[in-house]
Specification:
By secondary structure, the chain is mainly alpha-helical. The protein contains 21 helices and no strands. It is a multi-pass membrane protein.
Length: about 450
């Protein structure tokens, strides 16, 4: 799990690194021969990532249905090309293609890696191991923010290019998922894979028999998987699919990803005294702390409790932020005192947004692609992860595009309250319908899913 999460760390560095670089590309000191970026170019540079994610979800999701290890290993390729393009860039189109490839890699990260980790993890530790992916992503984002602020844009690619090659090499040493090997009727290889991940002296017979029975139930012992309409429309599958759909829509529309993408605009509109880069460091640290807390307690308190706390905390944070920006926009709170110093209340934006981000990464953001494999039946997990990533990417693309437009019509405080309301609705859905999957085998969770919300 640490090895496969390593590529997520490296990928997130590239995403975080671009945030302060956006400001450089917009300035008079831009390295682009065409001059500073226009608002239209910046908009496409930010949102084209989501288009890449949709392609990545399909490509890596398809490969991952049959070869979990290969799908994970191939994530290193777009990361490698990303840094090569940054190194040799001559115009904005190099950045467009690099950003598109970054999206493709991200689609692979959240589609292939959760499947691989869920297949190789013991049920008691699956939540903690699954949290390694979002933890690596947030830590990498924070590292990228720091590097982008202090390191030269012309030197960082030289340090980053060798790392994806190292990852691809290390992945060759890991075995394929035991579930996939059983599905391919390679029982001896599956046993060796289980021994590798459980330890050479572990008793893996019960788990191996469980895998064999599961595959036999799925396709009657055939090595070629055949999907039927009933695989998706039976009551148990449909409930898991609907809950997975809720999870993937709650991720972009909870507001955390949108705020992080437009963090400089948000803090400028809010009247905060902090510079955008300084605010980015603090919010980035809140991301890391939130995922770390989730990692420590997810297998102690369970998914439902963390999701409930998460959605409630995000809602409160955005509500406070909305109230503050409403009061400042209507001149009910002065940003500066009469003596030219900042009003003490100007600390509210960074506190409220950091709190919202922290609570978001404790649950609703970091757990998205851990929950899909847990909520859906084993036979359709691969397809559900792929389609889920595609839907999430499309929803994120729409959200990123309309956020600046809505800011002009309903102001920042209106958007904050919309996010707060959406998170309250998510809280109700979690409490009423979300099944608890903590510590349960992936092959029995779906049998309990239908009981929740009857």
């Amino acid at each position: 799990s640490l090895t496969v999460s390593f590529i997520a760390l490296i990928h997130a560095i590239s995403l975080g690194w671009l945030t302060p670089i956006f400001l450089v590309l917009q300035s008079d000191d831009t390295p682009l021969p065409s001059g500073p970026l226009t608002s239209s170019e910046l908009s496409w540079l930010g949102s084209i990532l989501c288009i890449g994610e949709m392609f990545g979800a399909v490509i890596y999701g398809y490969i991952g249905m049959y070869r979990r290890k290969l799908a994970t290993q191939l994530i290193g390729i777009p990361n490698l090309i990303f840094w090569i393009l940054i190194l040799v860039h001559e115009n904005i189109y190099y950045f467009y293609v690099a950003r598109l490839l970054g999206g493709i890699a991200f689609g692979g990260l959240v589609t292939a890696i959760p499947l691989y980790i869920s297949d190789i993890s013991m049920p008691a530790y699956r939540g903690a191991f699954g949290s390694l992916l979002p933890f690596a992503m947030t830590l990498g984002s924070l590292i990228g923010l720091t590097i982008g602020h202090y390191a030269s844009m012309s030197t960082i690619p030289y340090a980053m290019i060798p790392i994806p090659l190292i990852f691809i090499s290390i992945m060759t040493l890991l075995p394929e998922s035991p579930y996939i090997l059983v599905k391919r009727n390679k029982i001896d290889d599956a046993a060796q894979s289980l021994k590798f991940f459980r330890g050479p002296n572990s008793n893996i017979q019960d788990e191996l028999e469980n895998l064999k029975k599961c595959v036999q139930n799925e396709n009657s012992g055939k090595t070629n998987i055949k999907y039927e309409i009933k695989d998706f429309t039976n009551r148990n599958s449909l409930k898991g699919i609907l809950m997975s759909l809720f999870v993937v829509l709650a991720n972009p529309f909870c507001g955390i990803f949108i705020i992080f993408t437009y963090i400089s605009t948000v803090f400028e509109e809010s009247g905060s005294y902090l510079h955008a880069n300084e605010a980015g460091f603090i919010v980035g640290a809140a991301q890391v702390l939130g995922v770390f807390i989730s990692y420590l307690i997810i297998d102690r308190f369970g998914r439902r409790i963390l999701l409930s706390i998460s959605t409630l905390g995000v809602s409160v944070g955005f509500t406070v932020m909305g109230i503050y920006t409403y009061l400042t926009k209507n001149f009910l709170i002065e940003i500066e005192n009469a003596d030219g110093t900042y009003n003490l209340l100007t600390i509210i934006p960074i506190v409220s947004l950091s709190a919202a981000v922290l609570f978001g990464y404790v649950g609703i953001v970091s757990m998205t692609f851990m929950l899909i494999p847990e909520l859906t039946e084993p036979k359709i997990r691969g397809i559900c992860c792929t389609v889920g990533m595609f839907i999430l990417s499309f929803a994120a693309f729409i959200a990123l595009k309309i956020f600046p437009i809505l800011m002009e019509s309903i102001q920042l405080y209106g958007e904050m309250w919309i996010f707060a309301g959406f998170n309250l609705i998510s809280l109700l859905i979690v409490v009423l319908f979300m099944p608890e999957t903590k510590g349960k085998s992936l092959f029995v969770v779906q049998s309990e899913t239908i009981e929740v919300g009857k």
